[in-house]
Request: fold
Amino acid sequence: MRINKLNLILSLLGALNLILLSLPTIIVVSTSFTEARIVSFPPKGFTFKWYLELFSTEWFTKTFMNSLYAATICTALSIPIGVAAALALNRYRIKGVNGIQIFLLLPFTVPLIVSGISLLFIYVRMGWLGSIPPIGFALMIINIPFMIWSVSASVNSLDPNLEYAAQNLGAEEVQTFLYVTVPSLLPGIISGALLMFILGLTEFITSMILVTLTNMTLPVALYNSVKSYLTPVLSSASTIYIIIAVLTVWLVDKIIGLEEYMKII
Reply:
């Protein structure tokens, strides 16, 4: 009887936790379909007009494309760097490897605003302000530990006998790497790349410091808009982010499976 009561309490707490976590998402999504001109909950009526208005506005299309561009650059740079760093840290004897691993934790210990200001000083000196690639590079720097850890999990589970067998059969080191090592690391590479893309797409603090009017990303544009007014158009833009997150989870499940992904992370 006590076990049944305990299970009931745990189930109720789990349901309450799920409701609390889902409530902000439910409010944002539902208010994007309201007929009212201001955000209100519960929503009044049902309409898609705010989505039509959103995709017809220049500020959304421009800033969203900027975010996609920066996130793509962040992901593209993180893949070779993350793979090389994970292999080096887990396969080779490197002096000071513990110090390097601690150094890789700095993006989590140093406030993002400090990283953003530091990069701002560098970008001003280099004349890099006003373009998207430096933003993507900055997003890669602050998020690269996620990629390294994701690939490291696959490196640790890789059987080195597979590589030895390929070399014994006459494969050169480059062939072994391309046809044996990389395919074996794909779960970690894919999961890390998807995570880097989402983090690059949604990152706000560092982007707010580095962007200008010519290369503003969507999170910064949404923040600036929220300070002025709160309309269902902004809820529609937020819903787009939610849809992208759901599609990412679906893609991970289709490619490597959610169970394997949870083992990696």
